[in-house]
Amino acid sequence: MVQRSEEGIGQIVASTAIVHDYLTQRGGAERVVLALARAFPDAPVYTSLYEPESTFEEFAHVDVRPSRLNQVAALRRNHRVGLPLFATTFSRMKIDADVTVCSSSGWAHGVKTTGVKVVYCYTPARWLYQTERYLEGSLAPTLASPFLAPLRAWDRKAAKSADLYIAISSVVRGRIRSLYGREAMVIHPPVTVDSKGDGHEVEGVEPGYVLCVSRLLPYKNVDAVAEAFEELAGERLVVVGEGPLLDRYRSQAPANVRFVGGVSESQLRWLYRNSAGLVAASYEDFGLTPLEGLAFGKATAVLHGGGFLDTVVDGETGVFFDVPDPSAIADAVKRLLGSTWKPARLRQHLAGFDEDVFRAAITAAVDAVRP
Questions:
Q1: Residue 257 phi, psi (nearest 5)
Q2: CA atoms of 18 and 1, how far apart (whole Å)
Q3: What are phi and psi of 261, to 5 degrees?
Q4: What pLDDT, on a 0 to 100 scale, did the predictor assign at position 295?
Q5: Closest by CA position to 17, among listed 50, 48, 40
Q6: H-type helices in 183-286, by residue range?
Q7: Nearest by Cα to 68 from 12, 20, 7
Q8: Stretch 99-116: mean pLDDT
């Protein structure tokens, strides 16, 4: 039975409900929400913003219930300008379900619930604890700065309200312990990329390039990756991804680097399939891209740290470099391209991140706390 709150947020009496920060992008977190929706097929998905045109089309088959903020088109186009509004929005949501699974990197864990609250945490909010680094290149730091102290207080209070915390990686578990004083179990996100689907060629891109798939934000260090290819004159780099730094990076890119912006799922499959390998220099919470590369039989050169420590085996599924410095990245790419990778070992490692493994772990965790 569907009810309506005075704030206009849908409430529903259900066994399980899912809450996510916002559905306005195509990224790893949004893929996880789809996996959660498959794990709990009767669960509605509550969120602040939902823009069907800019997130995965599979959400059209999910019961998505956005907040009143969704009426503001500017926020759907750029959620960062709405950061000061999200705490109030999620605080006003009251979810009536036996278990509410909050898929959160900062906001969804603030909802009120009538039942058990489980938080699946991608990371404590970067825009609260690493504000300048996360939001560089937009007006959001200026807009958000007066609100940071009260938002941090709100965030820590929201973290205390959870009955169970689940982290996506070992490094995120450490952040949760440090910032919130909470112990979390680790359940890795699943790899849900369709490696066998049709691929559509990206015009002007010839096979044999190194691929970087990343949102274009400061902490992703894509500028350092592009600069590394000034030392790799015989190689090419293709960068997939959007973000506030796209125009700057594109204008500064060496001649052998191409920024293609956002692409379709079929184009992304073609890019993975026709690459010589992948590179990532970001401070990742999990490190999904190397696993997606494995689905296509590709190894990755990655930064030695963060979530990549959970997802890459040095010398077996990829190579590490110690700092996000162009010279270090260039050296790692040379080692990557000069190595022979064993397909059987790549598939074996990937099997540990299958969606069936994720589904079994997340449903067991939820069932263990279900009233």
A1: -120, 130
A2: 17
A3: 70, -150
A4: 95
A5: 40
A6: 222-228, 246-252, 265-273
A7: 7
A8: 96
- Residue range 244-277, pLDDT digits in tens: 899 999 999 999 999 999 999 999 999 999 999 9
Under 8 Å between Cβ of 298 and 278: yes
Return the pLDDT at 138: 47
213's tokens? 């798939």
Burial grade of 12 (CB within 10 A; 0-12, 13-18, 19 or more)? middle
Interatomic CA distance for residues 232 and 213, integer angstroms: 19
In the predicted structure, residue 142 carries a pLDDT above the cut 70: no
* Surface-to-core class of residue 231, CB atoms within 10 Å of its CB (0-12 exposed, 13-18 middle, 19+ buried): middle
What does the block give as tokens for 292? 């997606």
Checking if the pLDDT of 339 tops 50, the result is yes
What are the pLDDT digits (tens) for 70-82?
Answer: 998 888 988 877 7
User: What CA–CA distance (Å, rounded) separates 348 from 28?
Assistant: 21
The residue among 181, 178, 52, 32 whose CA lies nearest residue 108 is 32
Q: How far is 44 from 3, CA to CA, in rounded Å? A: 13
Please check the confidence at residue 333 and state whether its pLDDT lies above 70: yes
Report residue 172 as tokens: 């995120």
Q: Looking at beta carbons, which pairs linking 313-319 to residues 24 or more positions away fall under 8 Å? A: 313/349, 316/342, 316/345, 316/349, 317/290, 317/341, 317/345, 317/346, 317/349, 318/290
Report the SS3 class of residue 317.
coil
pLDDT in tens, 187-212: 999 998 889 999 999 999 999 999 99
Task: Indicate the residue type of 356.
Answer: D
Residues 55, 37 contacting (CB under 8 angstroms)? no
